[in-house]
Design goal:
The chain is built from 11 helices and 13 strands. The protein has helices spanning about 40-50, 65-70, 75-80, 85-95, 110-120, 120-125, 145-155, 215-220, 235-240, 260-275, 280-290, and strands at about 5-10, 30-35, 35, 55-60, 100-105, 130, 135-140, 160-165, 175-180, 185-195, 205-210, 245-250, 255. A 9-stranded mixed β-sheet has the order 5-4-1-6-11-8-12-10-9, with helices on both faces. It is globular. The N and C termini lie far apart (about 55 Å). It binds 1-O-phosphono-alpha-D-glucopyranose. 1-O-phosphono-alpha-D-glucopyranose binds near residues 193, 206 and 208.
Length: about 290
């Protein structure tokens, strides 16, 4: 049986340049979809997959993320005085258990591969998950839980969330060279980071959910800079192919690219429509606006 996935790494050191000016003084991971910051969705997805330890790879200007996952005693006492029990419970439940959350700084923005490598000592010698908070996925069963289950069935190894993207968008993603497809799992023959459409081996892209074997750290340690002059996770993964089981999982659900303004607005509408307390109002507003166009 494969080892249980107990730890998740959240790379949150990125500058969020695609979302300026909103992200000048606020981490992009704190942008709210409806009423919750992106990073809280990511943490809830991790918990739903049985993750016990949360490891944030952070950077300068990201302190509000730490505050978000801590108690706010002032706020809690005001809510308690005003008898807002539901909200109080919700806030308290979102604070991880003492000792289960750790922060480590990525001191230079050297890329996703480098960010993951920074978590090496905190992860240790066990398989772990990586969640990119700006890939927000609306699904009945949260995406990481789907991956944990699929990985157990194949007996372990690396597992990446994948989906088809428009061919003209391949330069935004890690792209697979596809092997055999079995149900929702694909074996991977190759991986390339952000290829131009003319060079892309397929239009099957890696989305920001990974379950990785700890051998990745040794590869990241010696990894040369790749696309965008950054140390790429995709390149280190590519070097692991052939050595261990390695699958892409076509997840069930809809993914929103919340690092992008349009994707973020789309996510807000979709998540609001998915909420029973908002659906009718939002639908009426969207219809009203559309009718004036
Ligand atoms: C990262 C990865 C890329 C992956 C993407 C998914 O890119 O490097 O392989 O396809 O996330 O969102 P980024 O969006 O950080 O540039």
């Amino acid at each position: 049986m494969s080892k249980k996935i107990r730890k998740a790494v959240f790379p949150v050191g990125g500058l969020g340049t695609r979302f300026l000016p909103a992200t000048k003084a606020m981490p992009k991971e704190m942008l709210p979809v409806v009423d919750k910051p992106l990073i809280q969705y990511a943490v809830e997805e991790a918990r739903a997959a049985g993750i016990e330890d949360l490891i944030f790879v952070t950077g300068r200007g990201k302190a509000t993320i730490e505050d978000h996952f801590d108690h706010s005693y002032e706020l809690e006492s005001v809510l308690s005085e005003r008898n807002k029990k539901g909200l109080l419970q919700e806030l308290q439940a979102s604070v991880p258990k003492p000792g289960s959350i750790a922060y480590i700084r990525q001191q230079e923005p050297l890329g996703l591969g480098h960010a993951v490598w920074c978590a090496k000592r905190l992860v240790g010698d066990e398989p772990f998950a990586v969640i990119l908070a700006d890939d927000l996925i609306l699904a009945d069963t949260p995406c990481l839980a789907q991956m944990v289950e699929a990985r157990e069935k194949v007996g372990g190894g690396n597992m990446l969330a994948v989906m088809e993207v428009p061919h003209e968008h391949t330069s935004r993603y890690g792209i697979l060279s596809l092997g055999e497809e079995k149900g929702n799992l694909v074996t991977i023959n190759g991986l390339v980071e952000k290829p131009a459409p003319k060079d892309a081996p397929s239009n099957m892209a890696v989305i920001g959910r990974y379950i990785l074997e700890p051998e990745i750290f040794a590869l990241l340690e010696t990894q040369q800079r790749g696309a965008g002059n950054e140390i790429q996770l995709t390149d280190a993964l590519s070097a692991m192919l052939g050595d261990i089981p390695f699958h892409g999982m076509k997840f069930e659900g809809t993914r929103y690219d919340c690092g992008d303004k349009i994707g973020f607005l789309e996510a807000n509408i979709a998540f609001a429509l998915n909420r029973a307390d908002m659906r009718d109002d939002i639908l009426a507003i969207v219809k009203k606006i559309a009718a004036t166009l």
